């Protein structure tokens, strides 16, 4: 499961970063990139802490929690980015 998750993240992260950079004005891309990386690092640290606490109670709990979060993330991503991808297609 871990290998599959890591492979999927390695495939999707460059796409998400590229989409964010294309949707950001050129003069604030450096700020966007820094904020994006900082938010990922902070949230990853919090997730690691919470995952450890969940594993102390049940070894399956982090898997269920992560799966739930990914489903919510996917639904939000599709809902929010579909109009933006249509705009990018129209510009091309």
Give a description of the structure:
The structure is a single chain. This protein has helices at residues 2-23, 29-57, 61-91. It is an all-alpha fold and 92 residues long. It is elongated. The protein starts with a helix and ends with a helix.
Quick recap:
The protein is mostly helical and 92 residues long. The protein has helices spanning 2-23, 29-57, 61-91.
List the topology elements.
Blueprint: H1 2-23, H2 29-57, H3 61-91
Q: How many individual domains?
A: 1
Estimate the strand proportion.
Answer: under 5%
How would you spell out the order of helices and strands? HHH
* Tertiary shape: elongated
Looking at how many chains there are and whether they match, the oligomeric state comes to: single chain
| Category by helix and strand content | mainly alpha
Extended strand count: 0
Q: Approximately how much helix is present in the residues? A: over 70%
Query: For the CA atoms, what is the radius of gyration?
Result: 16 Å
Uncertain runs: none
Q: Biggest sheet: strands, sense, closure? A: none
Number of helices: 3
Distance from first to last alpha carbon: 38 Å
Mean of residue pLDDT?
A: 85
Task: Using brief descriptors, characterize the structure shown.
89% helix; 92 residues; elongated
């Amino acid at each position: 499961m871990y290998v599959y998750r890591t492979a999927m993240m390695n495939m999707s992260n460059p796409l998400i970063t590229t989409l964010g950079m294309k949707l950001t004005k050129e003069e604030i891309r450096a700020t966007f990139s820094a904020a994006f990386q900082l938010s990922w690092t902070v949230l990853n640290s919090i997730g690691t802490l919470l995952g450890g606490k969940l594993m102390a109670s049940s070894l399956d709990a982090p898997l269920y929690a992560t799966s739930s979060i990914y489903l919510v993330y996917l639904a939000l991503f599709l809902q929010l980015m579909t109009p933006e991808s249509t705009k990018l297609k129209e510009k091309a």
